[in-house]
Amino acid sequence: MRRDRRAFLKIAGLSLMSFGMRPLSDALASNYRPEVVRAPEALVAKRWAMVVNPKKCTDRCQDCISACHQVHNVPDFGNPKDEVKWIWNEPFRDAFPGQEYRYIEKGLRERPVIVLCNHCENPPCVRVCPTKATFRREEDGIVMMDYHRCIGCRFCVAGCPYGARSMNFRDPRPFVKTINPDFPTRTKGVVEKCNFCEERLARGILPACVMACKAGALVFGDLENPESPVRDLLRKHFAIRRKAELGTGPQVYYIV
Amino acid sequence: MYDRGKIISGLAVFFALATLPFWVSGGKSVPPPEIKTDTSVIRQLKVKRCLEPTSFMKVRHMELIISWRQAVVRDGQRIYVASDGRQYRMSLSGTCLNCHSNKSKFCDSCHTYAGVKPACWSCHIIPGEAEG
To answer: By the 8 A CB rule, do B98 and B41 touch?
Structure first.
């Protein structure tokens, strides 16, 4: 039987393709999706947000910072170049550039303001992330990190206008003073940031910084719920947000 | 052929190095891993059963753990409903290692044998090692 070159190549191609069928069917068949549910005690909201009252902050108080960093195993490398931070103090002039003016009260310029990730409505970090390691939860607006996916490219660090993201240039574990066994540490080469205590909300507990603040300067709640404490504060006071003019839609409000 | 001596002796050295593991092991096979499940928590269990049947866990525990990661981190769901209806909090350190607290004799024995190096523990904490 004579077969021309064209027919031979066709048959050869088809037979080669058949090798791919088994892996293909396996991949389609083993789409393993177990049944999972939300924890019943979880706190849920349509839009988590925080209201900060800087007037209630007392000088040199580090309660919220140390509580957060302890709960989340945030390392302390001991030098500003490698610094990793989830919540920290920033001088007023840096936290709110554009809000200062020449004759501003001298102490106010340098006065520390507590700052953290703003869990933006329109987060630039999420837009630039090439692996979708950082993403915005549609159900409650928390901007999350999936450390498993982070490749350490630091686009998000460059994208975030608030400096809320820190890179682990070294293995952080030896630099965590007391390890909280209920929360993972990070590893070398991933970026980290505040997660609005998503893991605590899932257990029905308010964020660590909010619970640590004795002065009540940090208030947390659901923006979409008119009865929530954050809405109550926003009704009673005028509040500003950091660099809101950039269009990121920050969800941390500062009472002035 | 130029430099015949160098090439042939170089090839011989390469061949010896590449096949070194076979010469060293001397044709003996490595004993299969011993998986130990005698931890205090497992001893107290009335029915010695993991979340799912052992046959499933042996073959597909990695798929289960990956699906937990997806559910917890990306979907915000934290409770796993096993095929028999029991519910578990999805946590590698908190749930898996609560029973299998002998990680080095359970996880590692098989992973070392198979040459698998999961990167779980560079971030997730092994209970008991937390104080270190």
So the answer is: yes
CB-CB under 8 Å, B79 with A139: no
| Token pair belonging to B121 | 């523990």
Torsion sign across C-alpha atoms A153, A155, A156, A157: positive
A12 neighbors B59 (Cβ within 8 angstroms): no
Cβ distance B60 to A32 less than 8 Å, yes or no, reads: yes
In DSSP terms, A35 is beta-bridged to: B81
A113 vs chain B: nearest CA distance in angstroms?
30
Average of per-residue pLDDT across A69-76: 95
pLDDT tens, residue by residue, B108-120: 999 999 999 999 9
CA angle A37, A43, A45 (to 5 degrees): 100
**Share of chain B residues as helix, strand and coil, in percent rounded to the nearest 5:** 50, 5, 45
Q: Hey, what domains does chain A have and what are their CATH numbers?
A: 48-255 (3.30.70.20)
Give the tens place of pLDDT for each residue, A152-181.
Answer: 999 999 999 999 999 999 999 999 999 999
Give the model's pLDDT for residue A169: 96
Mean pLDDT of A105-113: 88
Distance from CA of A166 to the nearest CA of B (A): 16
Query: Cα separation of A4 and A121, whole Å?
Result: 63
Q: How far is CA A18 from the centre of its chain?
A: 46
Cα separation, A218 vs B46, in Å, equals 47
Q: ipTM for the complex?
A: 0.82
Question: In the prediction, which pLDDT does B132 show?
Answer: 45
Per-residue pLDDT tens digits for B33-62:
888 888 888 888 888 889 999 999 999 999
For residue B105, the Cα-to-chain-centroid distance in whole angstroms is 10
Amino acid at B86: R
- What's chain A's length in residues? 256
